[in-house]
Structure formats: structure tokens, C-alpha cells
Amino acid sequence: MDIVVIGAGQAGSSLVSKLRALGHEGGITLIGEEPVVPYQRPPLSKAYLLGEMDIERLYLRSEEFYAEQNITLKLGTQVTGIDREHREVHLGEERVKYDMLALTTGSTPRRLPAAIGGDLDGVFTVRTLADIDRMQPELGAGKKALIIGGGYIGLEAAAVCAKLGLDVTLVEMADRILQRVAAPQTSDYFRALHKSHGVDIREGTGLEKLIGEGRVSGALLTDGEELAADVVIVGVGITPCTQIAELGGLILDNGIKTDAFGRTSDPAIFAAGDCASFPWKDGRIRLESVGNAIDQAEVVAANMLGAEKPYVARPWFWSDQYDTKLQIAGLNTGYDEIVTRGEGDAVSFWYYCGDELRAVDALNDPRAYMVGKRLIEAGKSPDKAALADPATELKALLKA
To answer: Which residues pair with 390 in a beta bridge?
Structure first.
């Protein structure tokens, strides 16, 4: 049985590696648009951009690994179509036959429209190795950096720019940074952290347009203020890459729609990672995280070989900003109360819906993260008063 995987990121690399680990002896082909072997994305905008990590350390596995595992790599390659009837992937004039196909096409950053200056030189998104390599020479100390978007990507970019000595301003259209993804308490923590490093945060302020002739030189904000800018970094979210699925006529639903086993509307085609939406509780969900990309891809690999194992997501995320590490367990959707444990630099915020624990944001507190993750996965919800009491041992909550 020949298996083809389209998308050479974290999910794609995990999937093909798992296929071999599970004993699949048939052909495996991994196709990717970028001309480099699969690599880690999180360090791109942090350690790699700061010059603290060599490119070889970014690679998930060496090129030799794929050769040793008899995995055919087709990198720097554009997929132009899928012929589901004949089970072929089109690469221009080339045809690659498959018995089973997996789509691990990931996601792509939202860009600013050209009409408001999104195509000017000096305007960057943060997603690929090429993005960072283009951006790095522009981030000289003393330059003015404008960050559009106060989500985790924007805040991480602001932290790196500040560490490199740039004069940083961040604008967020919503009333507060992280409004879509975190509680006000987490927003307050990061706002104070960034201000302590000299970042000028403007909340409730949008971008009207970027200014410049060929290259960005400034920005006009929705409140009428005009800012000078040498570099603009856009962090306004990502969208699932579904174009190839659309070429194949697959059903979409906030990404490529799959069942609990990772199958798409075509039983010979699976999907995993950022691009895939799957059943979750009473609805559907699409998770944008390294953890999901790995876990889901490995379950899909097993199911392509006949395991019939449903994917049960255990959501977790992280963000590094300056010397602060945020670790998140669970999903905070539907919360109506926050319980705070600790204070100062090491603190955690626990999301409850009624008496049910939904998620935890742990800041410089790995123990709170680990205990919270185990509680959520076990379906346990500790007493709120006991949780907030610093005298309560966290591990004791696991036994309650």
C-alpha cells in the first residue's frame, strides 16, 4: 500500500515517522511546498530570530532519517490537483499514485490587504523559515517596530523586537490584548510585562492603513494618530490551508472536515493538524498547536493502517515572552469564573464554568500546569476555595 502525505510540517513529519514505526512497509511520499526538511515553527520567532538557535536545530529530523526510513521527500513542490477517481496527486505534469492520502497542509497567516499597504516592503508575517530569514536583517537596534495584533504571535514578536533593542509599539483593535483567547487576568499580566520592557501597547485601536512609497514608513491608526515605522510585523491570526482539499472536492467545515478517526469525506483521504476540524464534545473543533499536530497525526497514521482508533484531543499550548513561560492546559471556552492561585511572577489562572474546571493558564508555574492538565484530563474539578488557598498542596487536589 502506497501512502502519500501532502504537507511537510510538524503533522506531516510525525505522520510518516509513525507509519514506519508501526511497521508499514509500503511506499511513503511526503510532499512539501518549502524547499527544506520539516522543521519546528515555535522557535522561529524566538530563539532562531534572536540568533540563539542554528538552523540544523530547527529540523525535526535530518534528511538522512527520511532516507534511512525509505520515505521519499518531494520538497519545494506545488500540488496542482487531486484525482480521487484514479487516486493520483498532480504535481504539475508529474503524477504520484496513492492507495491512501493524508492532508497535513497546516495553516497560513492572515495578511493585510494590499489596499491598506500590506504589500509594502518592510511588512512581515511570522510563519515560515523564509519569513524569518527576510525579517531578521531588518530588526536593527533603534529602529521603530510596529506590531499589528495583540494575540500570542504579536506579543512574542514584540518581545523579540524589544530584546533586540527596537522601539516597539503594538496595536490591538479589541479592548484588550489576548481578548479572544485568555481571561482579563492573563491579559493584565502580559500588558504589565511588556510595558516593563518598554513596549507601547495601544488597545482598542485599529490600523487604518500603512504609509509608504514602495516601503513602509509609517501607519495611520483608527484614532487618527500617525506613527513612524521602519518595520511592521502582522500577527492577526491564521487560517487553515484548505486549497488542496478544495481541489479534491472534499467537504470543509472550518478546515478540512474529518470524522473521529481523521477520515475526510473521501474514505481514502485523511487529514491532521492545523488544517483539520474534528468532532469535539457536542460540536467540532480545529486546534492550532504543536501538541495537536503530533498527537492527531500519530492517531491518523494508526488509522490509515486499520486501527480504527478515535482521536481524543488533550489540548495544551505554550508561549515564551522574555523570561516568562506561559503553559496552557485545556480549552477555556464557556468559562464564567476565574480562580487565581499565587501572585507576582509565578501565578496561575483557573477557568471554571460553574463548578467544572475547563482550563488553566500557568505563568512561570510548571507545577500548576502539570496538575491542572492531569485534573482536566481526568475530568476532576477541585474545590475553588481550596485551589485559591496557598496552603493547599497542589498534588493533594489530584486525590480529592
So the answer is: none
Question: pTM value?
Answer: 0.95
Let me know if residue 318 belongs to a domain: no
Grid cell of 221 as nine digits: 491608526
pLDDT digits (tens, 9 = 90+) for 326-377: 999 999 999 999 999 999 999 999 999 999 999 999 999 999 999 999 999 9
Q: Are 99 and 1 in contact (CB under 8 A)?
A: yes
Please write the tens of the pLDDT for every residue from 297-307. Answer: 999 999 999 99
Amino acid (1-letter code) at residue 382: P
Query: C-alpha cell of 128?
Result: 515560515
Strand order in the sheet with 100-103: 71-74, 28-31, 3-6, 100-103, 269-271
Extract the residue ranges of the chain whose pLDDT is less than 50.
none
90 plus 116 within the same structural domain: no
On whether both 266 and 220 belong to a single domain, the answer is no
pLDDT value at residue 45: 85
Helix or strand run (H / E) with residue 347: strand 346-353
CB of 191 within 8 A of CB of 204? no
Reduced 3-state DSSP string for 75-121: CCCCCCEEECCCCEEEECCEEEECCEEEECCCEEECCCCHHHCCCCE
What is the extent of the structural domain holding 34?
Answer: 3-108+239-304
CB 68 within 8 A of CB 76: no
The count of domains in the chain is 3
Report how far residue 8's alpha carbon sits from residue 96's, in angstroms, rounded to the nearest whole number.
16
The alpha-carbon radius of gyration of the chain (Å, integer) is 22
State which H helix or E strand residue 65 sits in.
Answer: helix 63-68
The set of cell numbers assigned to 121 is 516592503
pLDDT value of position 350:
98
Predicted pLDDT at 123: 98
- Helices 10-21 and 290-304 cross at an angle (nearest 10°) of 40
H or E segment and range at residue 294 = helix 290-304
Residue type (1 letter), 244: I
DSSP string, 351-363: EEETTEEEEEEEE
**In sequence order, what are the residues at sequence separation of 6 or more whose Cβ sits closer than 8 angstroms to the Cβ of residue 98?**
2, 3, 4, 29, 87, 88, 89, 268
